[in-house]
Design goal:
232 residues, alpha+beta, 5-stranded antiparallel sheet, 4-stranded mixed sheet, 11 strands, globular
Length: 232
Amino acid sequence: MLNKVMLSTESRMRGDMQVRFGGRYGKTYCRKAVRRSVPSLRLGKGGGIIELAAHLYATDHVPYLLERIAEQTPHVHPVSFSFGKQDSFGPSFQQLEIVPLSSPALLSYLQGRGINLELAKRECSEARYTHNGKRYFAIAFPNGSGGFEVRNPYFKGCIAPKEISHIRQSGKARTACYVFEGFMDYLSFLTLRQESCPNYPELDGQDYIVLNSVSNINKALYPLGNYERIHC
């Protein structure tokens, strides 16, 4: 396990760790191990510095990750935002409000990802909260236990409890269910179906399950047992 790594600007990291920044990283690897016991690491994933740190420190607790980044890289000042651990939002979400999705910045973010805004407004809400005296907001996608998956251009997290989202259609029970890992995948599917078949998109021809995390797959097994056809 990598338990200590230097994260800094690209020029400072050439001897210890090389990471391509500029908004996204495609390949991350240790060029020279800090210790001989530290293995090389290669990820084929995209993401920001917080997501990278989450891989390196094996946790998604953002306050902890920000502290580790700050102490290891005095020349890098992380953006001041925070999420609690996924099983507890505690003081990180003060003065929390769930309102209709309307923030121009969030709508612009969704539009930049090719998501139909009317569909997004129908499926999602907006979470507004205060942390360290500052106001923040994020897209909020509801799950089946009263919690929300939250996301904005800089981070993604969860307002507990963590759970799958099971979208059932009204009327006659559907025989098919489409399964998605995250809600952005779900929104992308709805958008593509709407654009390819604008007159008859048949978005309500089946139910949907959004796992919100691959660790939730066991929670989806029971409801999936009620369907004749499952598409992933």
